[in-house]
Amino acid sequence: MSEEMILETEDLTKEFAGFVAVNGVSLRVKRGTIHALIGPNGAGKTTCFNLLTKFLSPTRGRILFKGQDITDMRPADVARLGLVRSFQISAVFPHMTVLENVRIALQRQRGGSFDFWRPTSVLDGMNKRAMELIADVGLSSVVDWLAVELPYGRKRALEIATTLALDPEMLLLDEPTAGMGHEDIDRVAQLIKRVAADRTVLMVEHNLSVVADLSDHITVLTRGRVLAEGDYDTVSTNPEVREAYMGVGHA
C-alpha cells in the first residue's frame, strides 16, 4: 500500500442471498483529499460505506486503513484507529444544548464512560475544546440552543462537531446535504471544506454541484461495480457515466 493512500480496498464484495450488492470494488483514497463516491440508486454506495466502517462483513476482499488490515475489526476498534463515519458514531441529544452535546462527545474521545455523576468542574474543563469545535462548525451564536431547536442544516453541523470531537483522521460522510435547501447546502459544503483542511474525507453525495465543488477525486459505482474514476471533468464527460448516472442518452 502506498503511503499516500490512507484507505484502500481490494476486491471488496458483499452478497446478500445471491444478490451481489458490492462486486469486486478496489478503492484507493489519497491522504488529505476529499473523495466522492457517487452513482444511481442501488449502485452499492451505502453498502460500501457499511463495509468500510465494519457494520457489515464482506463476503470476500480486504480493507486497509493506514496500511493496516481492518477487514475483521469491530466498528469501535476501527473508529479508535481514526476512521469515523459521521451521523453513525455521533450522538446528538435533542433536549441538550449545543455545548452539552459536544462536551459529551469529548468524553467519548477520552475512552471512558459518560461522566454524568462527576462534578461539574470535570465537564467545565472541556469547555475550551468544546467551544473551539463549535466555532469550527459555525455554531458559536447558538451554543446555548437545544439541539431540537436547530434548523436542519445546523443540526447536521452539530452532528459533525460531535464526530470531530473523536479526533478522526479520516471522516466518512453519508449524504451530508440530503434534504437541505440551498442555504443549508452552501453552509454544510463550506463546513466540509474546513473539516477537510487537515484530514481526509470520503463522502457519498447525490448533489452533483456539491460533488463538483468539493471533490478532488470521484469514484462512480453502478450495480455494485466501479464504472469510472477521476476528477469531476473526467467523470462527468464519460459517456458510460452520463448514461448510467445522469440518464443522458435515453429518449
What's the quick description here?
The chain is of the alpha/beta class and 251 residues long.
Q: What string, H for helix and E for strand, traces the elements in order? A: EEEEHEEHEHHHHEHEHEEHH
Strand order of the largest sheet: 7-8-9-4-10-11
- Termini separation comes to 44 Å
Q: Tell the overall outline.
A: globular
The low-pLDDT segments are none
The total beta strand count reads 11
Domain count: the total is: 2
Biggest sheet architecture = 6 strands, mixed
Assign the CATH architecture of the largest domain. 3-Layer(aba) Sandwich
**Beta-strand residue fraction:** 15-25%
Overall pLDDT score: 87
CATH-assigned fold name of the largest domain: Rossmann fold
Oligomer classification: single chain
